[in-house]
Amino acid sequence: MRSFEELVAEAESADVTGWGFGWLDGRATEERPPWGYARLLADRLAQVQSALDIDTGGGEVVAEAPALPATMVVTEGWPPNAERARRLLGSRGVHVVETDGGRLPFSDSSFELVTARHPVRPDWAEIRRVLQPGGRYFAQHVGPASAFELIEHFLGTLTDERRARDPEHEVAAAVAHGLEVASLQRARCRMEFHDVGAVVWILRKCVWWVPDFSVASHEGPLRELDAQMRSGHPFVAHSTRHLIDARRPAD
Q1: pLDDT band at 39 (very low <50, low <70, confident <90, very high)
Q2: pLDDT, position 251
Q3: The predicted structure's pLDDT at residue 23
Q4: What is the pLDDT of residues 210-233, one digit of tens each?
Q5: So what's the pLDDT on residue 216?
Q6: Which of 24, 85, 237, 244 is placed for a possible disulfide with 28 were both Cys, Cβ 3.0 to 4.6 Å?
Q7: Alpha carbon 175 to chain centroid distance?
Q8: In Å, how far from its chain's centre is CA 229?
Q9: What is the distance between the alpha carbons of residues 165 and 57, in angstroms, rounded to a whole number?
Q10: CA distances from 180 to 31, 131, 169, 236 (A)
């Protein structure tokens, strides 16, 4: 294995825009939820005339769908990701809208289908508003304490934060805002990191995991991980996910 300094330097210079994780191939693995969100999303997109994908990242998941509806819109709040989504999806007629986390810039009842893979924070009132009566919200959300083994290695125990993103609370919020939840599925998936560069890269990409992360300010915990992985033991964490299928009732 290359030196700590070489692995870190490579990870610090690597591109982290978009929502693809190919850079981690051979360096880290993450078990996937059993339901296969990208396939299920593609099936649904092929059956509607209008759809909105919220917090699309670089548009990678939408791009996997072989067929898109006549009206396909995606939103993204980070300009580099929005530009990446335009490059990836523009030729297929997808409209990319940059948002600031506030009210969705669409008229009431605009879409048959609203989707999201790992939305920053589901705004149930806005989701219901832009859905047509009888329309569906279909999304894979990040669950509680996802990757917290890694996050707490740098930040210490986060008792209150572990309670966030509870799927039952999200279902209750959706119902309170006038949606009917048809199904909820959950998964806990094993993650393995095999070199310190993979850790640096993922913390640069998922900046909310360890706010203000830098190699200089977190060198001690990074070297601890490096020593563990050099001894032949990957660092193990677990991601949590839940799949929500909800409907706006017909008026």
Answers
A1: very high
A2: 75
A3: 96
A4: 999 999 999 999 999 999 999 999
A5: 96
A6: 24
A7: 23
A8: 26
A9: 20
A10: 30, 13, 14, 37
Say which residues have a Cβ less than 8 Å from residue 150's Cβ, sequence separation at least 6: 191, 193, 199, 202, 209, 235, 237
Q: What does the pLDDT look like over 148-165, one tens digit per residue? A: 999 999 999 999 999 999
The rounded distance, in Å, linking the Cα atoms of 172 and 159 is 22
Number of Cβ within a 10 Å radius of residue 16 = 17
Only one residue has tokens 């030729």, namely 91
Is pTM beyond 0.85? Reply is yes
CB distance 165 to 146 below 8 Å: yes
How many C-alpha atoms does 104 have within 13 Å on its Cβ side?
27
Helix axes 196-205, 219-230, angle to 10 degrees: 140
- Annotate the chain with three-state secondary structure: CCCHHHHHHHHHHCCCCCCCCHHHCCCEEECCCCCCHHHHHHHHHCCCCEEEEECCCCCHHHHCCCCCCCEEEEEECCHHHHHHHHHHHHHHCCEEEECCCCCCCCCCCCEEEEEEECCCCCCHHHHHHHEEEEEEEEEEEECCCCCHHHHHHHHCCCCCHHHCCCHHHHHHHHHHCCCEEEEEEEEEEEEEECCHHHHHHHHHHCCCCCCCCCCCCCHHHHHHHHHHHHCCCCEEEEEEEEEEEEECCCC
Task: Tell me the domains of the chain and their CATH numbers.
Answer: 4-247 (3.40.50.150)
